[in-house]
TrEMBL record, chains A, B:
The lineage of its organism: Bacteria, Bacillati, Actinomycetota, Actinomycetes, Micrococcales. InterPro entries: Aminotrans_3, Aminotrans_3_PPA_site. Signal peptide: none annotated. Keywords: Aminotransferase, Pyridoxal phosphate, Transferase. It comes from Leucobacter soli. This is 5-aminovalerate aminotransferase DavT.
Amino acid sequence: MNTTPTQSGIHMANGFDPAEGVALDPAAEQLLRRRDRVLGPSYRLFYREPVAVESAKGVWLRGMDGRDYLDAYNNVPAIGHSHPAVTAAVTAQLERLNTHTRYLTEPVVDYAERLLTKFPAPLERVTFACTGSEAIDLAIRTARYQTGNTGLIVTEHAYHGTTLAAAEISPSLGPNNPIGAHVATIPSIDTARTPADQVGPRLLESVRAAIQQLDARGVGVAAIILDSIFSSDGVQAEPAGFLAPVVDLVHEAGGLYIADEVQPGFGRTGRWWGFERHGISPDLVVLGKPMGNGVPISALVGTVEAQQRFGSEVRYFNTFGGNPISIAAASAVLSVIESDGLVEHAAVVGERMRAGLASIAASYERATDVRGAGLFLALDLGEPDAALTPDPELAARVVNAMREAGILISASGPAAATLKIRPPLPFSEENADFLLETLDGVLARETRSRAGAR
Amino acid sequence: MNTTPTQSGIHMANGFDPAEGVALDPAAEQLLRRRDRVLGPSYRLFYREPVAVESAKGVWLRGMDGRDYLDAYNNVPAIGHSHPAVTAAVTAQLERLNTHTRYLTEPVVDYAERLLTKFPAPLERVTFACTGSEAIDLAIRTARYQTGNTGLIVTEHAYHGTTLAAAEISPSLGPNNPIGAHVATIPSIDTARTPADQVGPRLLESVRAAIQQLDARGVGVAAIILDSIFSSDGVQAEPAGFLAPVVDLVHEAGGLYIADEVQPGFGRTGRWWGFERHGISPDLVVLGKPMGNGVPISALVGTVEAQQRFGSEVRYFNTFGGNPISIAAASAVLSVIESDGLVEHAAVVGERMRAGLASIAASYERATDVRGAGLFLALDLGEPDAALTPDPELAARVVNAMREAGILISASGPAAATLKIRPPLPFSEENADFLLETLDGVLARETRSRAGAR
């Protein structure tokens, strides 16, 4: 077992398990009971003791228990929780107009123009939707229609979304989630256990094998879809550039390269887009989570060529996609990222975090690898053996001890033994130092208690 | 040809066709050029001369041309454009907190409790998403997992959404949109051409045949999915009750009944939900468009039984689904519908509209049928022959003449010859009378000019 058990066989990293019978804060306990009576059975909570949230500002969440929690996990409120620029923009737009794109309205055009300046020149058209899942789903439809092929290549621990088509390319959802017959998976990139000069060549070989598989199944290659920071595969960032040869290979096979930038996009990795680190230009780019700081908006950006056939021959209309209030939020986010220099900030504070984590890892033999780019960081916990055997129980204990200490992070990766640290972008050097210091203390206690338990 | 040609073979009722070379207002013309340079090729506009919108309030849109347009088409701003209750609720929430459902927050629970009181008792759990398409997609996944079957039954001119799985059950998207191999279509209900006592029996027979087809294909019946007001099938409302035997038949075959309430839900038909008119209770109900008055939110409401297997065995998490700001909007919408008595209002003004349209139809032999429920109304235009041969060109002329006269409606139905009238719910008796009077004048001119042209 490498994840926390929840209900009926579903395993989710850092999931709350009611069966553990943890005593909750009375307000949280009461809310949880009410919640269980009305929300569908899919809903899951984070942490051994779920966090009941009252309000949030910047990088801080205020709990119903009156405590403040440093948010080092949420990438949706990218420019900080409850940012006044988003509130002001959305409020002004709500007072004025909120309709759809079958009428001509100016905000969606203004924003599209601004957004596209952040992309390499061939990426010159954008289609708006509401969620990353919708944009991935549209990317799949677009790529299939464009290429005439149906085969898709993803990593074996990929997560790309919740629609039927997105879930079919999301093996990380577990054994009960069917993977499509037209899907070929490649091994997760595993930079902790792979010599740096072998990361690219091994990936290239596995993509070549996947192409052969899809050809053998008679479906061809419509696209390879890769999260540019490989979030659910445990955060795989180095050596930057390892993706470049893969793109050429997929193009030769007649497929498109779809960059899933839902996680790395909008400055997270210290660049505007994760694919930039690899020196490549995608055919289609999927944007989501941080785009509107939590106001639902997503987008598919692409070359004219990649979108032309589907766009001109198949009807697609997303009622809420690109509506003026979502656009107002997205426009405010873009402005704040620019005016506050958050891309550069993510690079600088991210590097301080990476160095700090590396320094901590040097002190604890069970901290087996540190990875990341910008403010997307990962620390593996496991055995100091040749296989760096992952230790998901230790990861769960550390995540929950951090929560007790007032800092929210989570666990991720194929073995759920990777600490995932991904704060709102305004995370300061002071916040970083507080996190590093607290993590140091938690690891000291938790690795000792582990040893003691043996 | 029964619809307006747009680009490269796509036909869409009431679509703008740049090839017609209509002279536009200069501001609109300039915005259109900018738009075409940045938005994806899927985007389409309404009307021969697209409407460029500056602002909106209540049931009125203000154009960039300085004119006011009476909105008799948009069901998303259900409680009226720019409603101050939505603005206030969303603004207050944006200032305080916007996070996701893996933390405990109170608004989503409060709203779920309130929403579920509007449903029959067995419908007691709700899962939130962002768009009707996402909720339909989740309903499909849920029904398939629950029943172990994959077959789906829909009408031959159904529209259920834009994700790959939703588009596969949306034949109204046209010939380039592939319909799934597990989909059986039944003929559109056509109450204008069917004796009232035959509507139910014919539907039942076609569903029986569809079940046999799916059994013969070896896929079984996972669900029948029906828009309770049959919007894209031309608005089919009477005789109320015709759906009841169908539900029993599908249940006997092992399938679920999914009510698509994206169009009729939240009071549109003069009842809270369209399915109520048929005296039935669905297994799953899909909610969307009007739910947040334009702030993206949707939901899947269902029985515990229908949702249990998928919910407990498959991971599903929608990042923006049920987020506090979407919930704030939805909660304000529910309050206003209740406090302003909009369900009853829709019934009363809708009946005035229906009677007025029937009176108009009595004066014009080319107005061949009037249908509807509450504030969802339809008027067919066609030949006064035995087949009531539809006249989509006349419908397009009437829709555009109404736009010229300052009233926004559209055309719909399998032949695109049905005027679709579906205003925000606060549409007043005065608004109704203005629309009826204007339509009378337009029909007088357009049916005469048609006769003259022959």
